[in-house]
């Protein structure tokens, strides 16, 4: 863009006013502040991502999670832990990426600041020169107007004293009038010279103001474009983080699909079975019957002795 809007809309009819220029500078400063705020946001987001990634990494590596599981569910849990570890690494990597984007924003801000500095120095000098020359011109105008009033008063005095004073006194009045006329001519020349100088300074300032407006508008277009693209990229990075995490979680889902309840049950049975014969029923044993049998047989009864009749 060529900066056609700023230079057409930030003027003031007051020759000493810098309102238009100040308004643009304030807007540019606000733009720099906005970029700094986004830069700080990225840095803080990076710290959050890094802390989350490290905490997730510690959780994945140090916290037991189904460590006594077996067979297919055990393998699914191993995949789960691996993918959580990978997700944690992705968040740590994202933190590094965000810090890099913050650094780019900082470099852009500083670059624009340096570009503006030369123009601002020139404009500040032009404003001071214009203000100083205006003061000199107004002072010259006051002197010129006072000399004109003095001359007018001297002329009136000459007319009033035409028939009232002697020739010698009248001569003094004429000399004074002539002196004042010369003073008026000199002050008039000085006043006109300052007017001419002020107009030249005004034209130079106006030319610098136009160039500054064009440069500032180009800068602002670049800033808005850079900021917009940075925010767009940030959204893409966050979206990609979600996609990457979901791809990793999909691996866990696939491993869970391969998990077989029947196989895990069979695996447990085959590897931990203790036997297939249950214990026999415990029969009732009558105390007195046992004593009678023992006495008659001379030996202890077996475990399944029938009840005595």
TrEMBL record:
Coiled coil ranges: 91-118
Domain F-BAR per the UniProt entry, residue ranges: 4-264
Record's keyword annotation contains Signal: no
Keyword Calcium recorded: no
Cell compartments where the protein resides: Cytoplasm; Membrane
Signal peptide: none
Primary localization class, coarse: cytoplasm
PROSITE patterns given in the database record: F_BAR (PS51741)
Entry GO terms, CC: actin filament; cytoplasm; plasma membrane
InterPro entries: AH/BAR_dom_sf (IPR027267), F_BAR_dom (IPR031160), FCH_dom (IPR001060), PSTPIP2_F-BAR (IPR042694)
Gene Ontology biological-process annotations: actin filament polymerization
Gene Ontology MF terms: actin filament binding
Membrane topology type: Peripheral membrane protein
This protein's UniProt keywords: Coiled coil, Cytoplasm, Membrane, Phosphoprotein
Function: Binds to F-actin. May be involved in regulation of the actin cytoskeleton.
The name this protein goes by in its record: Proline-serine-threonine phosphatase-interacting protein 2
Organism: Leptonychotes weddellii
């Amino acid at each position: 863009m060529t900066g056609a809007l700023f230079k057409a809309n930030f003027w003031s009819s007051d020759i000493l006013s810098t309102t238009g220029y100040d308004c643009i500078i304030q807007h540019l400063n606000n733009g720099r502040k906005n970029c700094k705020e986004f830069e700080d946001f990225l840095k803080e987001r990076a710290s959050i991502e890094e802390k989350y990634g490290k905490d997730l990494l510690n959780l994945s590596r140090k916290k037991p999670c189904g460590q006594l599981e077996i067979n297919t569910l055990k393998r699914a849990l191993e995949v789960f832990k691996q993918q959580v570890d990978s997700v944690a690494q992705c968040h740590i990597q994202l933190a590094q990426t965000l810090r890099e984007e913050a650094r780019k924003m900082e470099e852009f801000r500083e670059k624009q600041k340096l570009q503006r500095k030369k123009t601002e120095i020139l404009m500040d000098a032009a404003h001071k020169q214009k203000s100083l020359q205006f003061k000199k011109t107004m002072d010259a105008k006051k002197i010129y107007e006072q000399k004109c009033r003095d001359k007018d008063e001297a002329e009136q005095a000459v007319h009033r004293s035409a028939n009232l004073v002697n020739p010698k006194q009248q001569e003094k009045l004429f000399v004074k009038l002539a002196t004042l006329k010369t003073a008026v001519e000199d002050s008039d020349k000085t006043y006109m010279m300052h007017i001419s100088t002020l107009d030249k300074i005004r034209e130079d300032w106006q030319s610098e103001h136009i160039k500054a407006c064009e440069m500032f508008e180009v800068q602002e277009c670049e800033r808005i474009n850079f900021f917009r693209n940075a925010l767009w990229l940030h959204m893409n990075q966050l979206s990609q983080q979600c996609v990457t995490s979901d791809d990793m979680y999909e691996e866990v889902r696939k491993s869970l699909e391969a998990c077989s309840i029947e196989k895990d049950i069979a695996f447990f049975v085959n590897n931990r079975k203790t036997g297939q014969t249950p214990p026999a029923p415990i029969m009732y044993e009558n105390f007195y019957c046992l004593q009678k049998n023992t006495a008659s047989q001379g030996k202890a009864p077996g475990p399944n002795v029938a009840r005595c009749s």
